[in-house]
Amino acid sequence: MFYRPEEGHGLPHNPFNAIVTPRPIGWISSRGADGQDNLAPYSFFNAVAYVPPQVMFASTSAKPDRGDTKDSVANIRETGVFCVNIVSEALRDAMNQTSGAWGREVDEFTDAGLEKADCETIACARVAASPASLECKLTQIVQLPGAANFVVFGEVTGVHLRDDCMVDGRFDVTRFNPLTRLGYQDYSVIRETFSLKRPGE
Fold first, then answer.
1. pTM (2 decimals)?
2. At 14, is the pLDDT very low, low, confident or very high (cuts 50, 70, 90)?
3. How many CB atoms sit inside 10 A of residue 57's CB?
4. Structural domains in the chain, sorted by start
């Protein structure tokens, strides 16, 4: 089939996010100027540069109590920092609990039963059980076409790696099995890896 997005797809569910898969999940923790902590997952997330290390995530909807966006973007606008927590298979239910459209007064760490840990380079909480966390300072927020589409870019200023995920000096994802986002309400888990050498290596 072929369809033009502006004309609709005619299917029971939008296939777009089922095409671009699997997607890593950025579990974004942020803190507002009032000190309120927030934690929410975003599957429009990725690393975008090595030197200096940089990441991005995109928020694509809004909440009535936050105007044109959601808690994460609103908090980052206020404080200029955020932390990306990587989601392991063991944390999937807690991650899902934090995906709800809760009021800005809700602390998702507490609501999902997650232990907080302090970041080292920024004033923000992180998920203590996460296999890795990236402390970030905001570099820019870009508004995309669409009512509530914002891309947040950050430079990584601190990296936390759980010791049990390190094997022979390498961060081994099979030690924690990253959760990935597929389309619709579907997810998957990375359980095995393989290596390929580039031409000339």
1. 0.96
2. very high
3. 27
4. 24-189 (2.30.110.10)
